[in-house]
C-alpha cells in the first residue's frame, strides 16, 4: 500500500488573489471620496452575474455611478501604494447577453479578478440577507464602505459572515477514493463529501461526523490540506483527506446522498481528463468530476499527481 500522505499541488482557483483590502480606508470618508474619481467598479446583478469575456472582468469608471460612492457600494480593494486605485463593487442590472458568473469563469480569471469577484459576491450576498437587525428587527444601513451594517434602532453593528464547511477526500491509503453524489446534481457527477461545521465543533470532528452521517463510514488520519472561499452564498471550504476501510458497508444518507461508491485511480484519471463543465452529462466516463473552480477538483488532481 502506498503512502496515504499528499498535499495540494496548486493553490485553489478562488484562493489565488492576495488583495490589498485596505481596511484602514473603510472609515476614512475623505480618502474614499478623494479616491472615487479614479476608482473602478465591478457590477454584479442580483443573480451574481458580471460582465467579462471569461478571462477578464469588465471594470467600469466609478464616476459613471455619481460623484461620490453610493451608499450601498462595497470597497473591495485598493492599490498597494498609498494613493493606489480603489476598486469597488455595486449591485445593479446588467445589459442582456453580456454576463457570466463565478462558477463559469472563476478558474480562468487572473488572480486579481478572481479575488475581486469572489469577495464582491460574498459581501453583496451578505448585504442582501442582512437588511434587518437580528437583535431588535430594526432596519440596518451599510457602513464602513460596505463592510458593516448598523441598526438604525438599537445601534447594533454586524459584519459579513463566513460559514466554515469541511470537504474531504476519503481514500483507502492506496489507489481508491470514496465519492458521493447529491440528487440535485447532473447525472453522473460525483464529488467529495462535505458539510458545515456545527457550533462547538472542530473542523476535524466535522469531517468524521459528516462522512459517518452521509455514507455510514468511519475515517481516521484526518489531515488538513488547504482552504478556499466559496461565496455560494458565503462559505469557506476547509479541505481535508482521510483514510477509510473500503470493506466498510456504504449507507447513503436518505435525502442527502443519492449514491456513494469507491472509484479506482484509473476512474479518477479518466474523469479529470476532460473539460470541467460539471453541468454536462458524460456517459462515456466513470463519473463527471467537479469543476476547476472548486477545491474538490484540486484535491482530486493532487491525489492523482502524487500516487
CATH superfamily of the largest domain: Nucleoside Triphosphate Pyrophosphohydrolase
- SSE series: HEEEEEEHHEEEEEEHEEEHH
pLDDT < 50 stretches: none
Give the distance, in angstroms, between the N- and C-terminal Cα atoms: 11 Å
Total number of domains: 2
What does the overall shape look like? globular
The oligomerization state is single chain
CATH class term of the largest domain: Alpha Beta
The DSSP helix count reads 6
Estimate what percentage of residues fall within beta strands. Answer: 25-35%
- At the fold tier of CATH, the topology name of the largest domain is Nucleoside Triphosphate Pyrophosphohydrolase
The computed structural class is: alpha+beta
| Main beta sheet strand tally, sense and closure | 6 strands, mixed
Number of strands: 15
For the record, the CATH architecture of the largest domain stands as Alpha-Beta Complex
Rg calc: 21 Å
Helical amount: 10-25%
Q: What integer is the average pLDDT?
A: 94
Summarize it.
With 307 residues, this protein is α+β, with helices and mostly antiparallel strands.
Description:
With 307 residues, this protein is an alpha+beta fold. The chain folds into 2 domains: 15-129, Nucleoside Triphosphate Pyrophosphohydrolase, CATH 3.90.79; 162-305, Nucleoside Triphosphate Pyrophosphohydrolase (Alpha-Beta Complex). Helices cover 20% and strands 27% of the residues. The protein has helices at residues 29-36, 102-105, 111-128, 203-215, 265-272, 295-305, and strands at 40-44, 49-51, 59-61, 74-78, 86-91, 99-101, 140-143, 148-151, 157-158, 163-171, 176-181, 193-196, 219-230, 235-244, 259-264. α5 crosses α6 (295-305). The termini are close together.
